[in-house]
Amino acid sequence: MSATLSQQLDEFLAGWKQRVPPERQAAMERHIAHLTETAAGENAKQVGDQAPDIVLPDATGQSFAVADLLAKGPVIVTFYRGGWCPYCNLELKAYQAVLARITAAGASLVAISPEKPDDTLSTTEKNALTFPVLSDVGQKVGKAFGLVYAFTDELRSVYDGFKLDIPGKNGSPDEWALPLSATYVIGPDGRIRFADTSVDYRRRTDPLEVLGVLEHRAAAE
Length: 221
Prior knowledge:
- The protein is an alpha/beta fold.
- The protein has a single domain (5-220), classed as 3-Layer(aba) Sandwich (Glutaredoxin).
- Helices cover 44% and strands 16% of the residues.
- The protein has ten helices and nine strands.
- The protein has helices at residues 5-19, 22-37, 66-70, 86-97, 99-104, 117-126, 140-144, 153-161, 166-170, 207-220, and strands at residues 55-57, 63-65, 75-79, 108-113, 133-135, 148-150, 177-179, 183-186, 192-196.
- It is globular, with a radius of gyration of 17 Å.
């Protein structure tokens, strides 16, 4: 039996703790605690809210409107931090693994990151993704969903230590910010039917859970 996404994430985290110096680990824990204490994402869109319009460049730089997919059925929208994030890559591959079942349930899937289209293209190719991967440079859509948080000085120094230039990756000079790793199911009417906006980037909604929401809906119709 294949490992679930949660099991894969736990396995990666265990290995990460073996490789990364304790002081950096502690800084990342403080970062997650800070997001919790400051109620990051408290204004994030939730079930029952109208989802903001999503019109963004895809991995080839072409404009892509999620409304075109909503005209056909529900859409899963998953926000990820970037192709540099191993947790995100595990999540994206897990969605790819159940994409046929998502389609069979009458739904579509898109992923959104703040990275430039060139980087989303690399992510698409690296993970052999066949669903749209969209580029939210400037994080207009992420902010409209209430997901974007700014780095603390300590967190910025940690990412500097990892040699991750977040503003450079995102094409937004001097903006040290990322979206929460969030997943939504948006109905054809534009209303949000499912929302997960955890502040802990190491924990992700299992695609099988989201699939259950879709299949339950399909069975009820």
